[in-house]
Amino acid sequence: MKLSAELRAFEGRIGHRFTKPDLLIRALTHGSVSSPTREDNQRLEFLGDRVLGLVMASALLEHDKGATEGQLAPRFNALVRKETCADVAREVGLGEVLKLGRSEMLSGGRRKQALLGDAIEAVIAAVYRDAGFDAARDMILRLWGNRITNVEEDARDAKTSLQEWAQARGDTPPTYTQISRDGPDHAPVFTIAARLSDGTEARASAGSKRQAEQAAAAALMTKLDKG
Question: What is the pLDDT at residue 172?
Fold first, then answer.
């Protein structure tokens, strides 16, 4: 099977040339265009998630030989979560080569965090099956780059940090309220308020509820730090 010039360029961006091109095509095929004769990337995504996890766990252990499990776990979570995977996918232009059904394409699928995150994991699995673990590991370390060495000492997400802040003071967990949802269906903008029991709150907007909640929690933590 011969790859298009577009896919050859993508190979260059990830630094791996496939000996089995059908693996790359499958990794880039979303379920919205799958058929009995065309397999989508879900099974590869399942495998790639595990390969990524093993590589990151090993890299973190190597980078900080004195770190405890409690220190490593939040760093690991920060490196493998969907937001990070999607960021890596954007950097290599993965959205441009995703094979999507018409409805998914019209709804902005090439920019969706979940689709991009799943697809980069599928690409990892494709490299693993094409050339083995070492090739997959080398690609992951190259694409994640200084994210591994620069991952924050305490990489807990903002919502977790805010909840722990409240619990340490004997307070109830913060609440998250959707204030508004604006924009078209394919590119919504959610505004969320994070609020403590005493009424202290902060608001933030993002393209998904999860991102908006995280941003609101981070904004509230910043407000508390300044207070």
Answer: 93
- Active-site residue flag, 49: yes
Output the domain CATH number for residue 106: 1.10.1520.10
- Predicted confidence at residue 34, as pLDDT, reads 65
CB-based contacts of 112-118 (< 8 A; 24+ apart in sequence): 113/82, 113/83, 113/86, 113/207, 113/208, 113/211, 114/82, 114/86, 115/30, 116/85, 116/86, 116/89, 116/90, 117/82, 117/83, 117/85, 117/86, 117/89, 118/41, 118/42, 118/45, 118/82, 118/85
The whole-number pLDDT of residue 75 equals 87
For the question of residue 104 being annotated catalytic, the response is no
Q: From the candidates 45, 104, 118, 121, which is the catalytic residue?
A: 121
Q: Are residues 178 and 76 in the same domain?
A: no
* Structural domain harbouring 164: 158-226
pLDDT of residue 113: 84
End position of a domain, from candidates 150, 183, 213:
150
**Phi, then psi, of 157 in degrees rounded to 5:** -70, 165
pLDDT at position 98, please?
Answer: 93
138 and 54, same structural domain? yes
Same domain, 184 and 135: no
**Among 11, 39, 49, 64, which one carries the catalytic annotation?**
49
Compute mean pLDDT per 10 residues along the chain, 227 residues long, and list them.
90 96 95 78 96 97 88 85 90 94 81 90 98 98 92 69 89 95 84 95 88 87 76
